[in-house]
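Usage example:
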Amino acid sequence: MTDETVCQCETVHESAVNQAKESMLAEDDYVALSTLYKMFADPTRIKVLHALEQSEMCVCDLASLLVMTKSAISHQLKALRLLDLVKFRKEGQNVYYSLADDHVKQIIDMGLEHINE
Amino acid sequence: MTDETVCQCETVHESAVNQAKESMLAEDDYVALSTLYKMFADPTRIKVLHALEQSEMCVCDLASLLVMTKSAISHQLKALRLLDLVKFRKEGQNVYYSLADDHVKQIIDMGLEHINE
DNA sequence: TAAATAGTTGAACAATCGTTCAACTATATT
DNA sequence: AATATAGTTGAACGATTGTTCAACTATTTA
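Running the assembly step on the lines above writes:
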């Protein structure tokens, strides 16, 4: 497939494109990256993650803190769990969630740096 | 509004919730954060940003590299522009895009660290 | 064992998103 | 001036998303 059939352009800078092509990751890596960042792309989920930086909390705590239903929180926690961003422990009727590792805090802090400039 | 009316829970851990409440940011900050991360939450946009880590490129270059139409690329570049993640310069018919600052690379690298474990 | 509470789940809904398409602007070339 | 190319734009489309609702499981308490 020529460049022309792809983008209808005749002035593609081949050296820059070829260089970039070599440094590109596999398709799966970009999908994994975007799937990860999708978890930070919703205010509710960011609030949950930010709240859990302070201490572990059960679903009720988060629902109370964020003024949302347990169901809504639980759905989001499931997504965060699937991406290994939070872990949990059961104690009686309660399920206590906490951050899986400190990458979460690092990612949030980096975002805060960007928006505060 | 009581905890009960919010989440129908009676076992909210008040001290943990109150402590978290104090450390929470303003609603706007969470919206801004999630809007920022939304830019990294799509494979096409991440590819564009990652490619621009190598060198500046025009719309044709990116379209050729990612095997997409100029229109699709242009729409995504507009979104990245609005969030100040890329900057551009015009030269004749071409518009050359590049990363606005190195936060972008830092954010992508941090994501890669997380998925490689 | 029955009732109450914490949490999860799947379907449904509106809202948002990403790409396509066609039409457009702007610059360069003849 | 006419043509060609680079890039942008808005509407439209299907696909994905976040919350709600109702029904469910599991644990605790009476």
